[in-house]
Amino acid sequence: MDSLRSFLDTNKDRLVNELFELLKIPSVSADSAYSSDVFKAANFVASSLKTAGCDSVEICQTKGFPIIYGEKLIDPILPTILVYGHYDVQPADPIDLWDAPAFEPIIKKTDLHPEGAIFARGACDDKGQMYMHVKALEFMTSTGQLPCNVKFMIEGEEEVGSDNLTDFVKNNTTKLKNDVILISDTGMIAKDTPSITTGLRGLSYVEVEVTGPNRDLHSGIYGGAVANPINVLAKMIASLHDKNNHITIPGFYDKVEDLSNQERAEMAKAPFSIEAYKDALKINAVYGEKGYTTNERNSIRPTLDVNGIWGGYTGEGAKTVIASKAHAKISMRLVPNQDCHDITSLFKSHFESIAPEGVTVKVTPHHGGQGYVTPINNVGYKAASMAYKDTFGKSPIPQRGGGSIPIVALFEKELKSKTILMGFGLDSDAIHSPNEHFGLFNYFKGIETIPLFYKYFVELQSKM
Ligand code: BES
Ligand code: MN
Ligand code: MN
After folding, report:
1. Which of 32, 133, 379, 431 could form a disulfide linkage to 125, CB 3.0–4.6 angstroms apart?
2. Would you say 178 and 81 are in contact if contact means Cβ atoms under 8 Å apart?
């Protein structure tokens, strides 16, 4: 595309500095202490869309955080691309493990990123990746090269389940009408190996509480004679996997699609080194469901994981106590066809049924979402593939991802269009972890690849 490279060269510092301003806003949607910052980030996104050339930008208030909607419609005959992203971020905790403050972005060189990476919460997930789209739009409008209509919908509740976006999408299907949805909120295989995410896992997230005696007890006076809720919870959780690491909840696998041997062989062709994988995480062995490879375990297979567990005395020194209650947060990653509501109820009945005498169990569902899988024989995928080919010199590899963006399944249902997941993150970016970062290489590659997607999408669509 004309002058794309020179736009990037000329504006290099500005493109990074503007993103820094957004990263400085601690828009943590999960923690009400940050709620005014989440609104601040929403305003930032709105004004950046205006600057980038949107003709109209709305800050759509919801019961929670605003949805920013912006559009530039140049001709009703031309196709329309809908860009989705999120400006909220995960909490920075545990903050002690950050090398530098999470909301004071800095550039640091790493082995993988000798040219530097941006370190801050949200650098990759999703402020950095979302802002690539804003800057790509700015490039296209400022050089008169926007080839089609574009709509932006950027939300502030993705990290907490997108509750209000669901209604917004259902109530605004005409406004959001589009020919393809474009999202950068996933990753790619490696810095030199572009890939397009063709699947996302669904999610069922529950909190469990096991209650024993009505108060905390002396563990000598009562120990051995009443059920200890923490012992019981640990045993119940342990029983949720069998010796082959299959999940034991009756009916859990009923709707899980079995991939053909051919599909699995195709998946296995993606470049992957088990040694590098172990080394990156400093583990001496991988672990998981018998009969599946690591890449299958983290994409086409469902999981059940404890995300947090607490109860009893965890302060300094030793306190002899049998706690009255024990708690855990448990997530199940689901594959397409597994319904998240069904799975939540299967979990609930099973968990209640395995509670021994002497305790009571409460299961509280949190947010959930359906999985997503998309074919690669559509115009959007082809356009993305051509765009990557231009900027990386090789065609991207289709790959199913392990994470979840629950709203994507709803987009397809309500808006009847396909989503293209053009992610530029890397597994090593440490999203949701301390020291989250996003390579400058990845950031600029994203800004460079996006306008080419627009161009090829319009070209291919016009030949349909
Ligand atoms: N961007 C991630 C999802 C993701 C990351 C998908 C990498 C594929 C590869 C998103 O922000 C996220 O973290 N989603 C949550 C689910 C949500 C309901 C809290 C997740 O996957 O845990
Ligand atoms: Mn995200
Ligand atoms: Mn996230």
Report:
1. 431
2. yes
**Of the candidates 255, 247, 412, 248, which has an alpha carbon nearest to the alpha carbon of residue 341?**
255
Structure tokens at 131: 């802002």
How far, in Å, from the CA of 135 to the mean position of ligand 3?
21
- The rounded Å distance from CA 456 to ligand 3 centre is 29
Atom of ligand 1 nearest to the CA of 406: 18
29 Cα to the center of ligand 2, angstroms: 12
CB atoms within 10 A of CB 22: 23
Ligand nearest to the CA of 403: 1
**Domain-wise residue ranges, the chain:** 2-200+371-462, 202-256+302-369
b/e per residue, 185-211, with b = 16+ CB within 10 A? bbbbbbbeebbbbbbbbbbbbbebbbb
pLDDT tens digits, 350-387: 999 999 999 999 999 998 999 999 999 999 999 999 99
> Six-digit token pair at 33?
């202490």
Q: Which conformational region is residue 251 in: left (phi greater than 0), alpha (psi within -120 to 50 degrees), or beta?
A: left
Ligand 1: which of 29, 159, 334 to mutate, judged by most atoms within 8 Å of the beta carbon?
A: 159
Contact 233, 326 (CB under 8 A): yes
Assign 3-state DSSP to the chain and report helix, strand, coil percentages, each to 5: 35, 20, 40
- Lining ligand 1 with CB less than 6 A are 125-126, 158-159, 161, 185-187, 200, 203, 367, 369, 401, 403-406
- pLDDT tens-digit map of 327-346: 999 999 999 899 999 999 99
Q: Which ligand is nearest to the CA of 401?
A: 1
For residue 421, report the distance from its CA to the centre of ligand 3, in Å: 14
Task: Compute, in degrees rounded to 10, the torsion defined by CA atoms 15, 20, 25, 27.
Answer: 70
Q: Which CATH architecture has domain 202-256+302-369?
A: 2-Layer Sandwich (3.30)
Question: Which top CATH class is 2-200+371-462?
Answer: alpha beta
* Alpha carbon separation from 365 to 147, 247, 277, 355, 356 (Å, rounded): 45, 19, 33, 18, 21
